[in-house]
Design brief:
This protein is an alpha/beta fold. Helices cover 44% and strands 14% of the residues. The relative contact order is 0.15. It binds pyridoxal-5'-phosphate (PLP). Pyridoxal-5'-phosphate (PLP) binds next to helix 8.
Length: 419
């Protein structure tokens, strides 16, 4: 392969959308771990976002703003669809949405027929939880650190069908993958049908060894549904390689799509046995995942903007994005880990986390810490006081600069000294 071909196939062609040819050739030749520390590269990326000067935004975990090129494209879609109105809906919406699904399937690594576009992780996972044919006495396993609304939906199934939910609790800093696998294994009984596993715990940023959990569950004939709300387009993986039956994610988090975008993956063989939540008179084929996706008339311009977010994501490259996000998190956590009165709720091993981390100050309420950080230090985070965690969640993004994280470190060390 000559250099030109290498640059094209290794993502060079996409970086060229963002950089002048000379810079582009330099950056594409760098290893992602080295590029992660190259502030001139990331300053260009930062320039693609519109940032409020009032505070340092370290709360990208809830909603990651769209980059300006994506936002502008989104607004153009809104205008265009309003212009074509019913004509667009009757003639173009279905093939266009199918094309967007094809592109998403490439990132997910699955067949398009195993994927549908939803409005968010909640819709995706609740479609599975409520779509199961639960019988009284069936069991499902979740963890205390799972997202609360999904746990609530499992409790609704328990009230409605008499199924039983079992909760495990994840250690903050696991010694090994086996420790986590064993936790889930211990909760499985002959009545267990489904395990819900977070790919990344939203309150701590811990990444779970999903493939190993799935292998263990399958050895006991139990299906696995993965909550990938925070994982998709955050770090690199392909859904089918995890082996799970079901996977849900939000695209308005790490793919940088407009609000109200998500995906649901269902392994092909599992589609027929699921009950749809909404009826669709056209849907006579029980093996078609689209039977789970009747959302009525909906904001189709939002779906179209997914393509623009994918283009922006690809222009940077998923592996470069992952390396930068992990670098930023380690940049500040390495400085505060071990400080007196500071508690980190994120694993020590770098591979067990990426952008998200959580830090607490002994004796200080996390909501109060978040308030102080915003009011005194102009740093926006969110306090977390559940699942055994008492700290603020800190979520940098591609626009975050190390010097902003230095301000966070200075503030934490000041609060720690006062504790
Ligand atoms: C782990 C996890 N699962 C599910 C969700 C729900 O995501 P959404 O509100 O986009 O449906 C969230 C939201 O933050 C989350 O963190």
């Amino acid at each position: 392969m000559n250099k030109r071909e290498f640059l094209r196939t290794a993502g060079g062609a996409s970086l060229s959308l963002l950089f002048a040819p000379r810079d582009w050739a330099k950056y594409v030749a760098m290893r992602p771990e080295h590029l992660a520390e190259d502030e001139s590269f990331w300053l260009t990326i930062r320039g693609k976002y519109r940032l409020k000067p009032d505070y340092i935004n370290l709360e990208s975990g809830y909603y990651s703003m769209q980059a300006q090129p994506v936002l502008e494209a989104f607004i153009a879609h809104v205008r265009e669809i309003n212009y074509e109105a019913s004509y667009y809906l009757r003639t173009k919406q279905v093939p266009n949405k199918a094309a967007v699904r094809d592109e998403l399937a490439k990132i997910a690594g699955c067949a398009p027929e195993e994927l549908c576009i939803t409005r968010n992780t909640t819709e995706s996972l609740d479609t599975i939880i409520a779509g199961y044919d639960w019988k009284a006495g069936d069991e499902a396993v979740q963890c205390e650190q799972d997202y609360g609304h999904m746990l609530a939906h499992f409790r609704l199934q328990a009230r409605r069908h008499g199924m039983i939910n079992k909760l495990v609790s994840l250690p903050v800093d696991p010694k090994s993958d086996d420790e986590i696998v064993q936790l889930y294994a211990n909760a499985i009984t002959p009545r267990t049908r489904l395990l819900m596993v977070p790919h990344m715990v939203n309150i701590t940023g811990q990444i779970l060894p999903v493939k190993k959990i799935v292998d263990m569950a399958h050895s006991k004939r139990v299906d696995v549904m993965v909550d990938g709300a925070h994982a998709f387009a955050h770090f690199e993986y392909k859904i089918p390689n995890l082996g799970c039956e079901y996977y849900g994610a939000s695209l308005h988090k790490w793919l940088g799509c407009p609000l109200g975008t998500g995906i649901l993956y269902v392994r092909r063989d599992k589609i027929p046995s699921l009950w749809p939540m909404y009826g669709d008179w056209r849907m006579t084929d029980d093996t078609d995942i689209m039977k789970l996706n009747h959302t009525g008339t909906h904001p189709v311009h939002t779906d179209l903007a997914i393509t623009n977010a994918i283009a922006f994501h690809n222009s940077i490259g998923g592996h470069r994005k992952e390396a930068r996000l992990r670098y930023l998190q380690n940049y500040w956590t390495n400085k505060v880990r071990g400080m007196p009165n500071v508690v980190l709720y994120t694993p020590t091993e770098p591979a067990r986390s990426c952008a998200i981390a959580n830090v607490g100050i002994k004796g200080m309420n996390p909501t109060e810490l978040a308030k102080q950080l915003l009011e005194r230090d102009k740093i926006f985070t969110v306090g977390v006081d559940n699942g055994g965690v008492n700290g603020v969640r800190v979520t940098p993004h591609l626009f975050t600069q190390p010097k902003e994280l230095d301000k966070l470190v200075a503030a934490i060390s000041r609060y720690a000294k006062l504790a």
